[in-house]
Every structure is written in C-alpha cells, then in structure tokens.
Give the backbone structure.
Amino acid sequence: MARVVVNVMPKQEILDPQGQAVVRALGRIGISGVNDVRQGKRFELDVEESVSQEDLRKIASDLLANTVIEDFDVVVEGDK
C-alpha cells in the first residue's frame, strides 16, 4: 500500500478570498512581510499497488479538484 498526496490550489489568476483574509489578519496580529497567501486543499490517499498513475490523475481531476479554477499535483510518497 502506498500513500499518495493530492494538493489542490486555486489557479494563479483566480481570486483567493480566504488567502486574502489571512493576509489581512496577519496585519491585525502584528506580523508584516507576508505579501500573499493562497489557501488550498490536501488529500491523502492510501492506495493499493494496482492503482495506476493514470487512475490517480483521474481521481484528482474528476473528483478532488475543480479544474476550471484549480490546479493539482499528485505525489506518491511511497510504501506505507
């Protein structure tokens, strides 16, 4: 069994209101120097060896990410 991580982030050209809210909050708590924050999602999947890279990309693109507004990457971390 392998651990697979799928990271999903808003595309660069998409407004990220949650990230902007974090940037504003940083100023309120006295932290400066952070110019931008982008908030995304992380999914961890424990998969059997029979699940192919193509299957993993299909899971990410069809189920975990809205590919119109989000990008994703699939990282196989190895045996669990």
